[in-house]
Design brief:
Strand content: 5-15%
Number of helices: 8
Shape: globular
CATH architecture: 2-Layer Sandwich
Order of helices and strands: HEHEHEHEEHHHH
Oligomer: single chain
Amino acid sequence: MMGDGALTRFSSATRNGVRGVGEGSGVAIYHLTVKTGSRHGGQSAGASSDYITRQGRYASGAGELVYTGAGNMPAWAAADPGKYWQAADEYERANGRLYISAEFALPKELNKMEQIELAKAYLSAICEKQPYQFAIHKGEGNNPHVHALISERRNDGINRSPENWFLRANKKAPEKGGAEKNRILKSRGWLLAIRETWAEAVNYCLPDHATKIDHRSNEARGISAAPSVHLGPATAAVLSKLDSQIAAAEAREMAAIAKRWITPTAPGASISTLLSKAPAEPPQRPQSAPEPPRQPEAAPAQPERPQEPPEPPRRRYNRDDGPSR
């Protein structure tokens, strides 16, 4: 989770800094998408890291790069986070997920340093002990946004080699197995929670901004307008698809789950408690009370058969008896 008061300190610092929050140009919009990468899906963690940090074959786009950072990396990848994702490609199980990819728009009302601090505080909050790497891009037409790669494996502080890090976890002897995976990252409730957390973080940093961003879909809010385009038609299509996925019945169901998981923070408070109440597994739907066992029904009475007249006594013949005449 986010360090104690990290977002509160950030908000206070930016308001008292060189430029006050909210003096930038533009209108705050909401955009956050989450995807997963796996070998089965044809993705490469190392290539994704190079892409967001504009290294390797993507170095030609270095001019778009604003900032890069990482957190919770094991010792062997702390100085070069790219090594973590290269090791994931090499040692993660064939059917395992390599990374979770998150992309979200930064408010243009903040200056560059404020955007960096907001991104760092948010990722620190939602990643807890998960290794992560992120990069801020300028975006076409001054649309700053963040690309983040998040690992499912927790950094528990045990010193493991890259080969051992991606082994199956050993709960009885953690030092003999790999880093344990955080299963909650696979839940839909986690997705809804981090979407809501981002909306609260941005709105907290823009207290004087007239329009607040909302993590819910337009449909869930009763708005017929199409989502705003942030990074071009392709991204708008992705956002529209995500909106439809979390709308209607699913949105109502997930909102109910999130309400049980998350305690809303008071205005001006830190969001460090968000996600802290999430259980290891998504809560199960309440089961209806079992019906009392039914008493076995008595078998219907069988009608009595009429008694047949007794057979007449049979005559016993001796061998010497002749045929009757």
